[in-house]
Amino acid sequence: MPELPEVETIARTLGPQLVGKIIVEADIRWARTVAMPSAKKFKEQIRGQKIVSVSRRAKFLNIQLQAYNLLIHLRMSGDLLVKKGKIKLEKHDRLILTLANHSFLVFNDTRKFGRVWLTNDMEKVLGKLGPEPLSDDFTSQWLYDALRSRHRQLKPLLLDQTFLAGLGNIYTDEALHMAKLHPRAFSDSVTIQQGKKLHQAIQTILQEGIRRNGASIDWVYRGGDFQNHFRVYGRGGEPCPVCGTIIQKIIVGQRGTHICPNCQKG
Q1: Active site residue 174
Q2: The dihedral of CA 14, 17, 20, 25: what is its sign?
Q3: Angstrom distance (rounded) from CA 86 to CA 177
Q4: Of 2, 131, 133, 156, which one is the catalytic site residue?
């Protein structure tokens, strides 16, 4: 599943191709792709809308229209492509937006988990999300206070989108390793100094991921090279880049998790 750096990269790539374009019509090829509103209303409301901007909130793409927000969550296998001219429909194309300049925005989703919302009230969809980890609201003091107010293992808590928005399996493992914190450690045991290190690690890892256009390890997402610079994720059985200890893969909160047992003593 694309995480914050991958979705940010997609938004930055799509923006120049879409901003200023007019949506002529929508072809919904699998009704459940559209979570809000009904398929009929979706087609009616999106017709004639001009694309104003393309951005990201957490793992959601936000295509700002004149009167609505088109929110897209790619989930496990969703992919967005801009195609021009006469296009050939693919088996897993779920939503096709025809644009006025003879181009198309195509949402392809093999596993059918991705969803699209068209709304004039984003809070209905995004209201429960936690702060953005690269925003001014996300300070080391906020993180420390938020961790200490809960009694949860660090990794499941950091993956909770209502706690902090945008982190997934990859960047959580990488940040915890950089901060030298064990993913099973309880949040209310973190010291203020550890909180500062974790805050810095989260921002550093995400910024590096964005700089490298994300990680191309999923069979859908493409274009990034952060996977060539992982510290621990996906490197079970290999030496830790910091101390040389063999990286282990364990299960935390039902998620495969990579750690250095020396750097991240539990």
Answers
A1: no
A2: negative
A3: 48
A4: 2
Question: Does 226 lie in the same domain as 203?
Answer: yes
User: Which structural domain range is residue 94 located in?
Assistant: 4-126
Confidence of residue 89 (pLDDT cuts 50, 70, 90): confident
Annotation marks residue 255 as catalytic = yes
| Same structural domain, 115 and 156 | no
Which of 126, 158, 185 is the endpoint of a domain?
126
Q: What pLDDT is attached to residue 221?
A: 64
- pLDDT in the model for residue 216: 86
**Is the model's pLDDT at 241 over the cut of 80?**
yes
What is the reported pTM? 0.94
* Strand pairing report for 60-65 and 23-28: unpaired
In the predicted structure, residue 247 carries a pLDDT above the cut 60: yes
Q: Are 88 and 81 in contact, with CB atoms under 8 Å apart?
A: no
Given 21, 43, 255, 261, the catalytic residue: 255
Q: What is the DSSP string of 134-172?
A: TSTT--HHHHHHHHHT---BHHHHHH-TTTSSS--HHHH
pLDDT by residue (tens digit) across 50-72? Answer: 999 999 999 999 999 999 999 99
- Is 5 assigned a catalytic role? no
232: tokens are: 């621990």
Catalytic residue among 59, 155, 231, 235: 59
Q: How confident is the model at residue 77, as a pLDDT?
A: 86
Residues 118 and 146 in one domain: no
Which one of the listed residues 3, 6, 8, 174 is annotated catalytic? 3
The reply to whether 2 belongs to the active site is yes
